[in-house]
Write a structure and sequence with these properties.
Helices cover 60% and strands 0% of the residues. The chain is an all-alpha fold. It has one domain. The longest helix is centred in the C-terminal third of the chain and has 18 residues. The chain is elongated.
Amino acid sequence: MRAGDRLVAELSLAVVEMHIGDEGVILFNADKDPVHVAKLILAWIERSPAHRLRRRTRQNYTWQTIFHRDIKPLLRHKSDK
């Protein structure tokens, strides 16, 4: 797991009562339909501004993306002259 990633966990009532995890934890019943649980997780992810920022950062600011988007066109342009 990379730094900054969040864990999704099923917690017992005793742990829930201790308020561990706050907004970083998705609570669900293990007996629920897996599709329902997946929808809960996806909804939580889409509501999380921190997750959206991490996703945009991973998509737009990796070295590979920066090179292909910003640097490689400059190198092509320079070599065309």
